[in-house]
Amino acid sequence: MERLRPYWEKIRRFWKRRHLTQILLLIALVAFLLTILFFAWLATRANVESLKEGLSQSTVIYDRYEQKAAEVTANRIGGAKIDQMPQHVKDAITSIEDERFYEHNGFDIKGIARAFFSNLFAGRITGGGSTITQQLAKNALLSPEQTYRRKAEELFLAAKLEKVYKKDEILEMYLNQVYFGSGAWGIGTASERYFNKDIKNVTISEAAVLAGLLQAPNAYDPYNHYDRALKRRNIVLSKMKELNKISKAEYEKAIKDKINLGDGRGSRIKRKFPYYVDAVLDEAIREYGLTQDEILTRGYRIYTELDPNLQTALEKVYSRDWLFPRGRGGQIVQSGAVLVSPETGGVMGVVGGRGEHVFRGFNRATQLKAQPGSTMKPLAVYAPALKEGYSIESELVDEPISFGTYKPQNATRTYSGKVPMYKAVEQSLNVPTVWLLNEIGVSKGAESVEKFGIPVQKDDRNLALALGGMHHGISPLQLASAYSAFANNGKRYDSHFVVKIVGPTGNEIASHKKKSVRVMSRADAKTMTSMLLGVVENGTGKAAKVNGLDIAGKTGSTQLPYADINGTKDQWFAGYTPEVAGAVWLGYDRTDREHYLSTTAAQGTAPIFRAIMQEARPFLKEDTFGITVAGEEKDSVFSKKELIEQTEKLREEVGKATETIKEEAPKWKKALDEGIIRMIDGAGKMAEKLKELRGS
Questions:
Q1: Which residues cross the membrane (predicted)?
Q2: Which residues have a Cβ under 8 Å from the Cβ of 142 and sit 6 or more positions away?
Q3: By the number of CB atoms within 10 A of the CB, which of 189, 412, 458, 649 ranks highest?
Q4: Is 495 a catalytic residue?
């Protein structure tokens, strides 16, 4: 230590001489001031002036034309007015949530200090210390994450809220958007839900119950945890007595009261196009970090890819029970369908099931995972085969063949020896498909499937992939998105519902970032479409045909796990027109020896897809691909579209020629008449000349 002392003295003298302590303090002070300025700037960006109006509105869903399509509301009964609430309701809330609410300017120094040391000892942000104003700022304007930055933003926004609104206005906004459990948002709804009475009629005991719920709505829900709710109510009553908000007599009476529950209206989630709206909420929560509570209470404006006409078409079809197979043993045959725009990847319509709808329940169009059967053939086999140089006329082996222990069979158990590729697609032949995947290589097939947006697990990288053999399965949305690449000349856009989300103060919270991938060449996409047109025109998808509308598509089904039963587990149809791609799934939620499909996809999903396209057709502008069906009109020089164009051109030329004749005819007639007169005059002169010659 003695040896180090001289060095230490030198450092100390240098430190003092250079005034490093003052410099460091100055730097810290500047950093602190800049931080304050930064958060103050963030607060100025928030349009808190429009917050009250925004919170009183429902979240609105807009369609792809930016027209209001649906409202999402938790039925907050329009919001309870602060002047209609008994004083003991306000006192119960402020006593337990923010006892100095009417004294501070948005934040409470004592509460912040207490929370700071609690968080410090905990080693993380555990919450606490927030005033009612801060909670309103957090719930209405900020994300739910717990970080020091978010806490700082909360403080500055709370201060700004206090400058703009009166205390009772802040309390009213807070009480009308906060969650009270059992699906009740807002104190008015909670009063109906728990006591079946208007908020102006609740007792002191009931007010304490409602106030006690705010700390942990689910934990203190009196329907599920009566004793906990009772203890929490008593804590609130004690706090109210301590702060002289109620008298001793009022306290003693209230503490003896039981919690008399009377289930009232509660909260009913209201919205049009329920399956689509649910899918929008799911995506907003999953992709953009919002919570269900935020969406239902903040008055967001969510712009989507919804096409109301196509959505209505889907819902009309799914209301026709006669289109679907009859259920067995008390279970209905379930189904899900989705329509996607090939040009954007936007989901234009979706129905996630049949029968009673449950708010944000299981959506079979977006959340189902089932083996896709033969709908996988174009994705895993024929698309990569075209890339490898195969053509629609390429001959494929169609005879009983084994690939090690794997021996695929055609559904009809008949074989042709060799078939052209388009015929194998058209008739959904299994053996030629597996043979072709074996020729091009499983790895190329799996790579192709993943380009179409469908993950392929390690266990699925085998020849069974050709026929849709997948351990985890796919959803109709994934399948429709994959087929949309064929309709869009080989380019696939990521499927999505949400375009952008705008908050209650007008700020854009999130927006969709377009992503696309080139799956195949334009020429190969057209070739694939020509083969899939053949499926609907001449093959297994005939039942999906709509006269006057080009539909390309593919059927698919999966086998039952019971060798002694003839039937199918899942049925699929994936198809597209020039403007829309879609997929339909049909099956039981739980398949067993009693619950299975006795028909094929040609009899089940194909007619459903046809019905959807018939309803959608009036709203589609294009009805033809202008592509010849594979195997037909092989000697024709022109495609169908080109023949139509040439006919129209010829018609126009004939029309122009007719008009020209009409316009020029009088001139031609005049010239002709003059020519005839001249000829007659000339003939007369010649006759006279001849007479003269004879006379001489």
A1: 20-43
A2: 150, 153, 154, 157
A3: 189
A4: no
